[in-house]
Design goal:
The chain has 228 residues and is α+β, with helices and mostly antiparallel strands. It has seven helices and eight strands; from the N terminus they run αββββαβααβαββαα.
Protein backbone atom coordinates (compact mmCIF):
# COMPACT_ATOMS: atom_id res chain seq x y z
CA UNK A 1 0.00 0.00 0.00
CA UNK A 2 1.13 3.58 -0.65
CA UNK A 3 2.51 5.56 2.27
CA UNK A 4 -0.79 7.22 3.11
CA UNK A 5 -2.29 7.97 6.48
CA UNK A 6 -5.46 6.22 7.60
CA UNK A 7 -7.54 9.29 6.76
CA UNK A 8 -5.80 9.76 3.41
CA UNK A 9 -6.72 6.18 2.46
CA UNK A 10 -10.35 6.90 3.35
CA UNK A 11 -10.29 10.04 1.21
CA UNK A 12 -8.66 8.22 -1.70
CA UNK A 13 -11.38 5.55 -1.65
CA UNK A 14 -13.99 8.31 -1.84
CA UNK A 15 -12.15 9.98 -4.74
CA UNK A 16 -12.15 6.70 -6.68
CA UNK A 17 -15.84 6.08 -5.93
CA UNK A 18 -16.80 9.56 -7.10
CA UNK A 19 -14.71 9.15 -10.25
CA UNK A 20 -16.37 5.81 -11.09
CA UNK A 21 -19.81 7.39 -10.70
CA UNK A 22 -18.84 10.38 -12.85
CA UNK A 23 -17.59 8.04 -15.58
CA UNK A 24 -20.86 6.12 -15.54
CA UNK A 25 -19.31 2.87 -14.34
CA UNK A 26 -21.80 2.54 -11.48
CA UNK A 27 -25.45 3.49 -10.99
CA UNK A 28 -27.63 3.55 -7.88
CA UNK A 29 -25.83 1.34 -5.32
CA UNK A 30 -23.65 -0.55 -7.83
CA UNK A 31 -19.98 -1.34 -7.35
CA UNK A 32 -17.69 -1.57 -4.35
CA UNK A 33 -14.12 -0.82 -3.32
CA UNK A 34 -11.86 -2.26 -0.64
CA UNK A 35 -8.34 -1.46 0.51
CA UNK A 36 -6.06 -3.58 2.71
CA UNK A 37 -4.53 -1.65 5.61
CA UNK A 38 -1.08 -2.16 7.10
CA UNK A 39 -2.54 -3.98 10.13
CA UNK A 40 -4.24 -6.61 7.95
CA UNK A 41 -7.73 -5.16 8.28
CA UNK A 42 -9.71 -3.64 5.41
CA UNK A 43 -11.67 -0.53 4.55
CA UNK A 44 -14.78 -1.21 2.48
CA UNK A 45 -17.49 0.86 0.86
CA UNK A 46 -20.86 0.39 2.57
CA UNK A 47 -23.86 -1.29 1.03
CA UNK A 48 -26.98 0.58 0.02
CA UNK A 49 -25.40 3.90 -0.93
CA UNK A 50 -24.47 5.47 -4.26
CA UNK A 51 -20.78 5.88 -4.88
CA UNK A 52 -21.52 9.55 -5.57
CA UNK A 53 -22.53 10.03 -1.94
CA UNK A 54 -19.62 8.20 -0.30
CA UNK A 55 -17.77 10.21 2.34
CA UNK A 56 -14.80 9.08 4.48
CA UNK A 57 -16.79 8.52 7.68
CA UNK A 58 -19.24 6.19 5.88
CA UNK A 59 -16.56 3.62 5.06
CA UNK A 60 -16.53 0.43 7.11
CA UNK A 61 -13.45 -1.26 8.57
CA UNK A 62 -13.61 -5.07 8.66
CA UNK A 63 -11.37 -8.02 9.47
CA UNK A 64 -10.31 -10.85 7.15
CA UNK A 65 -13.56 -12.70 7.84
CA UNK A 66 -15.76 -9.73 7.03
CA UNK A 67 -16.60 -8.89 10.64
CA UNK A 68 -17.23 -5.20 11.26
CA UNK A 69 -14.56 -3.54 13.42
CA UNK A 70 -15.45 0.09 12.87
CA UNK A 71 -18.57 1.67 11.38
CA UNK A 72 -20.80 4.69 11.85
CA UNK A 73 -24.50 4.10 12.42
CA UNK A 74 -25.94 1.13 10.56
CA UNK A 75 -23.43 1.07 7.74
CA UNK A 76 -22.17 -2.38 6.78
CA UNK A 77 -20.05 -3.74 3.93
CA UNK A 78 -21.53 -4.85 0.64
CA UNK A 79 -22.72 -8.41 0.29
CA UNK A 80 -20.04 -8.67 -2.43
CA UNK A 81 -17.37 -8.53 0.28
CA UNK A 82 -16.80 -12.30 -0.07
CA UNK A 83 -15.48 -11.69 -3.59
CA UNK A 84 -13.08 -9.01 -2.35
CA UNK A 85 -11.78 -11.06 0.56
CA UNK A 86 -11.12 -14.01 -1.74
CA UNK A 87 -8.84 -11.79 -3.84
CA UNK A 88 -6.75 -10.97 -0.77
CA UNK A 89 -6.69 -14.60 0.34
CA UNK A 90 -5.48 -15.85 -3.05
CA UNK A 91 -3.00 -13.03 -3.68
CA UNK A 92 -0.68 -11.64 -1.00
CA UNK A 93 0.39 -8.91 -3.43
CA UNK A 94 -3.11 -7.45 -3.67
CA UNK A 95 -3.67 -4.27 -1.68
CA UNK A 96 -6.94 -3.08 -3.22
CA UNK A 97 -9.92 -4.42 -5.16
CA UNK A 98 -12.32 -2.49 -7.40
CA UNK A 99 -15.64 -3.83 -8.69
CA UNK A 100 -17.72 -1.81 -11.14
CA UNK A 101 -20.01 -2.09 -14.16
CA UNK A 102 -18.24 -0.08 -16.88
CA UNK A 103 -20.80 -0.28 -19.73
CA UNK A 104 -18.68 -1.40 -22.67
CA UNK A 105 -16.58 -3.91 -20.74
CA UNK A 106 -19.73 -5.22 -19.04
CA UNK A 107 -21.28 -5.59 -22.50
CA UNK A 108 -18.50 -8.05 -23.33
CA UNK A 109 -19.15 -9.82 -20.00
CA UNK A 110 -22.87 -10.10 -20.80
CA UNK A 111 -22.07 -11.38 -24.29
CA UNK A 112 -19.59 -13.84 -22.73
CA UNK A 113 -16.79 -12.55 -24.96
CA UNK A 114 -13.31 -12.38 -23.39
CA UNK A 115 -11.05 -9.47 -24.27
CA UNK A 116 -8.16 -11.73 -25.19
CA UNK A 117 -6.92 -10.17 -28.42
CA UNK A 118 -3.39 -8.77 -28.27
CA UNK A 119 -4.08 -5.64 -30.30
CA UNK A 120 -3.41 -2.58 -28.12
CA UNK A 121 0.13 -1.77 -26.99
CA UNK A 122 -0.86 -0.34 -23.60
CA UNK A 123 -3.22 -3.21 -22.80
CA UNK A 124 -0.66 -5.87 -23.70
CA UNK A 125 1.84 -4.29 -21.34
CA UNK A 126 -0.48 -3.53 -18.42
CA UNK A 127 -3.20 -6.19 -18.51
CA UNK A 128 -2.52 -9.08 -20.86
CA UNK A 129 -5.60 -11.15 -21.70
CA UNK A 130 -8.88 -10.49 -19.88
CA UNK A 131 -11.05 -13.57 -19.30
CA UNK A 132 -14.75 -13.93 -18.58
CA UNK A 133 -15.23 -15.82 -15.33
CA UNK A 134 -18.16 -18.26 -14.89
CA UNK A 135 -21.46 -16.88 -13.64
CA UNK A 136 -21.94 -16.69 -9.89
CA UNK A 137 -24.97 -15.51 -7.93
CA UNK A 138 -24.10 -12.20 -6.20
CA UNK A 139 -23.61 -12.26 -2.40
CA UNK A 140 -23.07 -16.03 -2.42
CA UNK A 141 -19.86 -18.06 -2.36
CA UNK A 142 -20.42 -18.82 -6.05
CA UNK A 143 -18.73 -15.55 -7.05
CA UNK A 144 -15.50 -15.98 -5.06
CA UNK A 145 -15.33 -19.60 -6.21
CA UNK A 146 -15.79 -18.55 -9.84
CA UNK A 147 -12.96 -15.99 -9.79
CA UNK A 148 -10.47 -17.97 -7.69
CA UNK A 149 -8.99 -20.01 -10.58
CA UNK A 150 -8.29 -16.82 -12.55
CA UNK A 151 -6.65 -14.78 -9.81
CA UNK A 152 -3.33 -16.60 -10.12
CA UNK A 153 -2.81 -15.19 -13.64
CA UNK A 154 -5.03 -12.12 -14.00
CA UNK A 155 -5.39 -8.71 -12.39
CA UNK A 156 -8.52 -7.90 -14.38
CA UNK A 157 -11.55 -10.08 -15.07
CA UNK A 158 -14.95 -9.79 -16.66
CA UNK A 159 -17.67 -11.28 -14.45
CA UNK A 160 -20.20 -13.11 -16.61
CA UNK A 161 -23.55 -11.27 -16.73
CA UNK A 162 -22.34 -8.99 -13.96
CA UNK A 163 -19.50 -6.51 -14.43
CA UNK A 164 -15.76 -6.27 -14.00
CA UNK A 165 -13.16 -6.77 -11.27
CA UNK A 166 -9.65 -5.37 -10.94
CA UNK A 167 -6.98 -5.81 -8.30
CA UNK A 168 -3.74 -3.99 -7.62
CA UNK A 169 -0.93 -3.46 -5.15
CA UNK A 170 -2.72 -0.25 -4.14
CA UNK A 171 -6.00 1.46 -4.91
CA UNK A 172 -4.81 3.72 -7.72
CA UNK A 173 -3.24 0.76 -9.50
CA UNK A 174 -6.50 -1.23 -9.27
CA UNK A 175 -8.48 1.80 -10.45
CA UNK A 176 -6.17 2.48 -13.40
CA UNK A 177 -6.50 -1.14 -14.49
CA UNK A 178 -10.29 -0.75 -14.54
CA UNK A 179 -9.89 2.46 -16.56
CA UNK A 180 -7.62 0.71 -19.06
CA UNK A 181 -10.10 -2.17 -19.31
CA UNK A 182 -13.02 0.08 -20.23
CA UNK A 183 -11.03 2.03 -22.82
CA UNK A 184 -9.79 -1.22 -24.37
CA UNK A 185 -13.36 -2.54 -24.47
CA UNK A 186 -14.52 0.61 -26.29
CA UNK A 187 -11.68 0.38 -28.81
CA UNK A 188 -12.29 -3.35 -29.32
CA UNK A 189 -15.98 -2.76 -29.96
CA UNK A 190 -15.21 -0.03 -32.49
CA UNK A 191 -12.67 -2.26 -34.22
CA UNK A 192 -15.25 -5.03 -34.52
CA UNK A 193 -17.75 -2.59 -36.01
CA UNK A 194 -15.07 -1.67 -38.55
CA UNK A 195 -14.45 -5.27 -39.54
CA UNK A 196 -12.47 -6.83 -36.70
CA UNK A 197 -9.30 -6.45 -34.68
CA UNK A 198 -5.86 -7.27 -36.06
CA UNK A 199 -3.48 -8.80 -33.54
CA UNK A 200 0.17 -7.83 -33.46
CA UNK A 201 2.76 -10.39 -34.63
CA UNK A 202 3.97 -12.76 -31.94
CA UNK A 203 7.48 -11.29 -31.82
CA UNK A 204 6.08 -7.78 -31.27
CA UNK A 205 3.85 -9.09 -28.48
CA UNK A 206 6.80 -10.77 -26.78
CA UNK A 207 8.78 -7.51 -26.96
CA UNK A 208 5.93 -5.57 -25.38
CA UNK A 209 5.61 -8.13 -22.60
CA UNK A 210 9.32 -7.69 -21.85
CA UNK A 211 8.72 -3.95 -21.49
CA UNK A 212 6.70 -4.64 -18.34
CA UNK A 213 9.99 -4.80 -16.44
CA UNK A 214 11.18 -1.50 -17.89
CA UNK A 215 7.95 0.26 -16.97
CA UNK A 216 7.79 -1.36 -13.53
CA UNK A 217 4.42 -2.97 -14.21
CA UNK A 218 3.54 -5.26 -11.30
CA UNK A 219 0.82 -7.83 -10.73
CA UNK A 220 -0.47 -10.73 -12.78
CA UNK A 221 -0.76 -10.16 -16.51
CA UNK A 222 -0.45 -13.26 -18.70
CA UNK A 223 1.93 -13.64 -21.55
CA UNK A 224 0.60 -14.22 -25.03
CA UNK A 225 -2.06 -16.91 -25.26
CA UNK A 226 -3.91 -17.79 -28.43
CA UNK A 227 -7.43 -18.66 -27.38
CA UNK A 228 -9.54 -20.87 -29.57
Amino acid sequence: MENLSYMEVREQICDVCHKMWQLGWVAANDGNVTVKLDDGTFLATPTGISKSFITPEKLVRIDKDGNILEAVGNYKPSSEIKMHLRCYTEREDVGAVVHAHPPTATGFAVANIPLDKYTMIETIVSLGSIPVTPYGTPSTNEVPESIAPYLADHDVMLLKNHGALSVGADLLTAYYKMETLELFAKISLNARLLGGEEELPRDKIDTLIELRKFYGVTGKHPGYKKYS
